[in-house]
């Protein structure tokens, strides 16, 4: 939100520098995110002055040029060569003197220098509109109608303004501060300075020749509706001062009526809407909802289908405006408009929020209405606006104010205890100062005792409805920096372990994966409901369905991240990026028994070649073992060093492994089924893994156990095993570790062979076994005895044949 300091001074006297004001507002909770200088014309026309052409003659060496002398208020007139066809003696003109930099309307710039043009000296430039950056005309120089003395700065003649603009990062709860008047209300307390009357409220109603009836059918959505008519208007450009005000905060001037409504919106925080009165059929304004699907064309020339909850401003025959959000094409103000009906209303925030989201329309008006405006501001803003519009357009007020307000909105009553003020703030604040701050914030004290206050909070402070809210307001105005830090800091609780920081863990794992050549992706949590039919394990009953789907392809929240990964792989392959190493922190969403479940996951996807093509390294397609190794590294980082590994039973995978801890699946990894990949036009292998992110972080044990480096050597023994293809390495590992618990430290496969000479359905593993006794050197007898027991177990439990074993 942009706040003009010059505009702010209309509401309150400010004697502070922009930088000081920046600090004051930031410390009060209205964080200033930027401070910039505004010039109504770039460069401020410094060096451009009013001049008078004393003489004008044809250039002796150029038919289309003139040689002039111009009085610019200096001791001697300046010789200036001019190419404009309309230059003549006796004219008042604007002259850019030597050293001036001009910024043209097309964005180009020019520094004026003393020069010779076709042999004639020229010490300046007589300017056209576009050369000054104040218009686009280049038909000739600007000829002024003014009695200002020669040498008067052009900025004074053109009433140019310089301003400083604050960029405030407005939090959603501070709807009351979404205007210059709102910010001034805070400054009233912070600067201890009274507010000024910035606009005329008293109306001069000379005629009542344009009455409009107002009927509010839906008072829940529209608790208050005010309006007035203005007749005899001329729609034209706004005066320079108003255009400067709007441009300073980033708005483009349109015409005097629309600019006036924007001026009130950003000045007082009250949205207004002007209807062309000639287009209000039946001279009736009806506030109501219409049937679901009713077509309506908005100002952007788009036809929209209305929801049954959209509050519409209608005439006797048709809708004219989506209340509080966007105007209609047929009822807006045009250059031919001569009379208007001016609306100033208070709409229920819930209704406006639903409408804004349903139509994906975000306007300055909806921004304020959906957060909560001031129901007591409608008539005040309407009066000030009506007087301003009559002044700008030459019209007159042609009706009394209509104000439909059947159920006035009450103030919020809150009980505040002094002890809680001091307890939450951490400092005893004088009761007189507390009451002074509340009074400055327009919060009335209804009842008072020695221990507490019963107060009345105006309804525009939608964020102040509890005791804690009131105390926060007192602290804001008292000053956070005024709360001294105690010399002795202490705590009555010390945690045994540091609090788990999910963002820190995410950052560390991201760095680890990026260092291994992976790239992070971020996919949409919205997906296509048709994907549900690809897997029997997914059910449409579990969908979290979007009520206001952006498109048919994004109509549900994803139940799994398989499809997100496949979409990204397909997108990249279609653009000839076939070697992919990707990871994502995302979430899945389910609806089970009417309750919604959200699950954070870390997913890893690999496809294509493992390394880029190079003469140094032979290209090799990525494998299951590469991605499973990455998963194991991540689990090791979280101290899940010995998870239970089983064969993955998941229809989405061709094969894979499931990692479990305490009978809870914490990760799964494998090859996504080729038939599923083909659904996305992918013919190459796609390996995929997902890790239960919440579980591994929440169950992370940060304590590290250290042990002495072993003094005694370890021993390795290898076996060649022939077995059924159905036998997995994890089965071999489990049998081995169960058989020898003391000195067997690790089991590893280092070679695999399959061939016809082994027999049908057979395979061979070469397996290494690491034996290690921490207390003594292993003897050959103990080693052989251990290996015999392992071989017996393999033969007995897994029907394995040990090659070369002799009994």
Q: Kindly state the mean pLDDT as a whole number?
A: 91
Number of beta-strand segments: 42
Number of domains: 6
Might you state the CATH topology name of the largest domain? Answer: BirA Bifunctional Protein, domain 2
User: So how many helices?
Assistant: 20
In one word, what is the shape? elongated
Largest sheet: 7 strands, mixed
Cα-based radius of gyration, to the nearest Å: 39 Å
The CATH class of the largest domain: Alpha Beta
Measure the end-to-end span. 87 Å
**CATH homologous group name of the largest domain:** Bira Bifunctional Protein, Domain 2
The secondary structure category is alpha+beta
Binned, the helix content reads: 10-25%
CATH architecture of the largest domain: 2-Layer Sandwich
Query: Beta-strand level of the residues, as a percent range?
Result: 25-35%
Side by side, the strands of the main sheet go 29-33-34-38-37-36-35
Unreliable spans are 491-495
Name a few traits of the molecule.
807 residues; alpha+beta; Phenylalanyl-tRNA Synthetase, Chain B, domain 1; OB fold (Dihydrolipoamide Acetyltransferase, E2P); Phenylalanyl-tRNA Synthetase, Chain B, domain 3; 6 domains; seven-stranded mixed beta sheet; six-stranded antiparallel beta sheet; 20 helices; elongated
Topology readout:
Layout: E1 2-4, H1 5-8, H2 18-27, E2 32-39, E3 48-58, E4 66-71, E5 78-82, E6 92-96, E7 101-103, E8 109-111, E9 115-117, E10 120-122, E11 125-126, H3 129-132, E12 143-144, H4 154-157, E13 162-168, H5 180-190, E14 213-216, E15 224-231, H6 240-248, H7 256-268, E16 272-276, E17 284-289, E18 295-297, E19 303-305, E20 311-314, E21 319-322, E22 326-327, E23 340-346, H8 349-358, H9 364-369, H10 378-393, E24 396-397, E25 402-404, E26 412-417, H11 418-425, H12 431-440, E27 444-448, E28 452-457, H13 467-478, H14 502-515, E29 519-520, E30 526-527, E31 544-545, E32 556-557, H15 562-573, E33 580-592, E34 595-607, H16 624-637, E35 644-647, E36 653-661, E37 664-672, H17 674-678, E38 686-692, H18 693-698, E39 715-724, H19 729-739, E40 744-753, E41 762-771, H20 780-798, E42 801-802
Parallel strand pairs: 14-17, 29-33
Antiparallel strand pairs: 1-13, 2-13, 3-4, 3-6, 4-5, 6-11, 6-12, 7-8, 9-10, 15-23, 15-24, 15-25, 16-23, 17-20, 18-19, 20-21, 21-22, 26-28, 27-28, 30-32, 31-32, 33-34, 34-38, 35-36, 36-37, 37-38, 39-41, 39-42, 40-41
């Amino acid at each position: 939100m942009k706040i003009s300091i010059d505009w702010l001074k209309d509401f309150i006297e400010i004697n502070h520098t922009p930088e000081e004001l920046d600090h004051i507002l930031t410390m009060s909770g209205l964080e200033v995110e930027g401070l910039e200088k505004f010039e109504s014309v770039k460069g401020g026309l410094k060096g451009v002055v009013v001049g008078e052409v004393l003489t004008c003659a044809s250039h002796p060496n150029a038919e289309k040029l003139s040689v002039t002398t111009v009085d610019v208020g200096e001791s001697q007139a300046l010789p200036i060569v001019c190419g404009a066809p309309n230059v003549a003696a006796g004219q008042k003109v604007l002259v850019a003197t030597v050293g001036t930099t001009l910024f043209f309307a097309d964005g180009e710039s020019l520094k004026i220098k003393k020069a010779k043009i076709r042999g004639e000296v020229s010490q300046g430039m007589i300017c056209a509109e576009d050369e000054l950056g104040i218009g686009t005309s280049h038909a000739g120089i600007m000829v002024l109608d003014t009695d200002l003395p020669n040498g008067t700065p052009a900025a004074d003649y053109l009433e140019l303004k310089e301003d400083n603009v604050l960029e405030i990062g407005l939090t959603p709860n501070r709807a009351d501060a979404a205007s210059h008047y709102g910010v001034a209300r805070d400054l009233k307390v912070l600067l201890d300075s009274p507010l000024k009357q910035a606009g005329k409220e008293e109306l001069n109603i000379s005629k009542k020749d344009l009455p409009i009836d107002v009927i509010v059918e839906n008072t829940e959505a529209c608790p208050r509706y005010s309006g007035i008519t203005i007749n005899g208007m001329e729609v034209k450009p706004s005066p320079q001062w108003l255009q400067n005000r709007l441009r300073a905060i980033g708005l483009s001037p349109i015409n005097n009526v629309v600019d006036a409504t924007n001026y009130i919106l950003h000045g007082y925080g009250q949205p207004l809407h002007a209807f062309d009165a000639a287009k209000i059929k039946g001279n009736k304004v009806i506030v109501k909802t219409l049937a679901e699907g009713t077509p309506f064309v908005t100002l952007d020339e788009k036809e929209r289908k209305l929801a049954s909850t959209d509050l519409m401003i209608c005439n006797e025959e048709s809708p004219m405006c989506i209340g509080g959000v966007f105007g209609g094409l047929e009822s807006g103000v045009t250059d031919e408009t001569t009379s208007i009906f001016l609306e100033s209303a208070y709409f229920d925030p819930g209704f406006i929020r639903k409408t804004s989201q349903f139509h994906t329309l975000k306007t300055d008006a909806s921004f304020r209405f959906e957060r909560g405006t001031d129901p007591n501001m409608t008539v005040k803003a309407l009066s000030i606006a009506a007087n301003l519009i009559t002044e700008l357009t030459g019209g007159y007020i042609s009706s009394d104010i209509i104000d439909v307000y059947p159920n006035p909105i009450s103030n919020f009553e809150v009980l505040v205890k002094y002890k809680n003020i001091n307890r939450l703030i951490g400092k005893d604040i004088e009761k007189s100062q507390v009451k002074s701050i509340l009074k400055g914030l327009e919060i009335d004290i209804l009842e008072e005792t020695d221990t507490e206050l019963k107060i009345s909070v105006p309804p525009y402070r939608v964020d102040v409805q509890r005791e804690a809210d009131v105390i926060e307001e007192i602290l804001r105005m008292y000053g956070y920096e005024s709360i001294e830090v105690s010399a002795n800091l202490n705590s009555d609780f010390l945690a045994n372990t540091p609090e788990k920081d999910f963002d820190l863990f995410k950052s560390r794992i991201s760095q680890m994966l990026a260092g291994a050549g992976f790239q992070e992706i971020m996919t949409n949590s919205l997906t296509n409901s048709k994907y549900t039919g690809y897997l029997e394990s997914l059910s449409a009953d579990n969908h979290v369905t979007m009520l206001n789907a952006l498109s048919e392809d994004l109509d549900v929240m994803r139940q799994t991240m398989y499809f997100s990964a496949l979409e990204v792989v397909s997108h990249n392959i279609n653009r000839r990026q076939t070697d992919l190493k990707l990871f994502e922190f995302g979430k899945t969403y389910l609806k089970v028994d009417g309750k919604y479940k959200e699950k954070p996951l870390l997913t890893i996807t690999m496809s294509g070649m493992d390394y880029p093509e190079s003469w140094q390294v032979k290209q090799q397609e990525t494998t299951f073992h590469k991605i499973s190794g990455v998963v194991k590294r991540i689990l090791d980082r979280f101290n899940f060093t010995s998870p239970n590994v089983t064969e993955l039973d998941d229809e989405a995978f061709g094969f894979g492994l499931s990692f479990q801890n305490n009978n809870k699946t914490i990760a799964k990894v494998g090859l996504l089924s080729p038939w599923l990949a083909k659904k996305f036009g992918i013919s190459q292998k796609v390996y995929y893994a997902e890790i239960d992110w919440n579980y591994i972080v929440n169950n992370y044990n940060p304590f590290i156990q250290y042990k002495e480096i072993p003094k005694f050597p370890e021993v390795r023994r290898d076996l060649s095993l022939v077995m059924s293809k159905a036998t997995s390495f994890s089965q071999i590992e489990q049998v081995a570790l169960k058989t020898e618990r003391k000195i067997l430290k690790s089991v590893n496969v280092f070679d695999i062979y399959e061939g016809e000479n082994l027999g049908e359905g057979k395979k061979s593993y070469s397996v290494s076994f690491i034996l290690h006794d921490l207390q003594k050197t292993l003897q050959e007898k103990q080693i052989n005895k251990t290996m015999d027991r392992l071989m017996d177990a393999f033969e007995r439990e897994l029907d394995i044949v040990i090659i070369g074993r002799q009994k």
